[in-house]
Each structure stands twice: as structure tokens, then as C-alpha cells.
Amino acid sequence: MGLRAVFRASMEHEITNQPGFAQLDMTLDTGEVIRAEAGSLVSYSEGVKIMGSGDDEIKSLNYVLDENHRPFSTAFTSQRPGTVTLAPPFPGDIFHFKLRDETLYAPSRSFLAVEDAIVFDAEFSREETFVECEGDFLLTLSGTGSSFLSSYGALSVVSLNPEEGYVVDTGHVVAFEGGVDFSVRRVSGAGSISESGDGLLCEFEGPGTIWTQSRSPASLLAWMVRNQSGGGSETGAKGESAK
């Protein structure tokens, strides 16, 4: 069965368990295709098919690989009306953004799902310092259709007027509109810590909208490493004292 385009005002969906542990329930028409972040699948109904790289249909889709040349997304289609449930890896929220012949930028960690009408690509060459976690990269989503992004923690929306500036730690950026100008700078002792030990801050300039999250994966990782090291030493010290 070949793929077909499904045109409607908005993809039928429901976001449940907001805001702390949100999940996305999507309804697929026969032959409709969605692409989701690899590993985000929770469940799907009978008749839904996971499309592999060997399927003829997958060759017609925009296929993105991560920096290690692994498939970044998984495609789903349905042989009859069905449902797919997705969830992001971190606790937090999900939001729906309807693109109308426009562009949206998002770190790959924020990506959850898109309609197949959306073209998305990896911006490996542009602002490579934007992301602070290994394996993370900047995505460009463009076209007309539904996109779904997720936040780690609470989601906030910042609307910028023309020439209005705003600075965000790169680890707290969820997405921003294509019309927003941005640049990244390194600052010692502030922002998400990069491999060089500097902080990464993103300077935005309006007009446009920015979405931010209250938690940072990089900060969580740094906290775990710091406490694991400290906890191990402390436990060892207590163990020696007890002998």
C-alpha cells in the first residue's frame, strides 16, 4: 500500500497527564504517516505498522541520522484507523505547534513527533556549540503540518518584540521560531557546562517566540556525577571508620 497525504486542519491528537508526566495519543487515518523520536513509543493499536529502513515507503520520507549515523526517528503508518501513544524520556510537558509554511528550530532532545508533511533536518554545521550534551544537535522543522515537542520540567513561553533581546542557558531551550535571530557564546562559570568547562548561553533577538524548560539534562547529569563521586568517597570513608 502506497503512502498518501492526509490533509486536515490539525492532526487528531490528545496530550494527557500534563504537565508533569505528559504523553501523546495520536490518531492515524488509513495510510497516514508520522515520524517520532526513536525510543519514544509507548504503545499502538492493531493495524499500526513500524516502518523500517528496508521498507520501500521509508525511502520517500525525510530520513535523519544522528551524529553517530543511527536513525534519529521512527516512522509509523496505519493500515486502518489506529492510535499511537508516545512519551518523551524526561518527566515534563508536551506541546503542539502547527507549522504553516514556516520554520521551527529545536534541540534534538526536544523532538517528539511530526506529520510526514514536515521536513526536518539536522543542523550539524550551524552553531555546533548550541547543544551541551553528547549526541544532541539542532533540528530544523519546516513546512506545513503538526509538530510535537517536549520539555524536561515545566514549559514556559517567551514572546519577543522586534529587536528585543533575551538570554537563555542552552540547556533550557526547547524551541524557537525561525524568525528569531540567535547566537551562542561561552561564559566561564555560568550556563550549561560544556566539555571545555565553559557555560553556553544563547542570545536571542526578536521578533518571535521562544519555548524554555525549567530543568536541564546537562545539569542533571552533572549533579549525578558530582554526587556519585562524593557519595562514593563518603561511603568509603565511613566504611573505613567502621573497621
From TrEMBL:
SUPFAM superfamilies linked to this entry: TRAP-like
Pfam families assigned: AIM24 (PF01987)
Listed name of the protein: TIGR00266 family protein
Species for this entry: Haladaptatus pallidirubidus
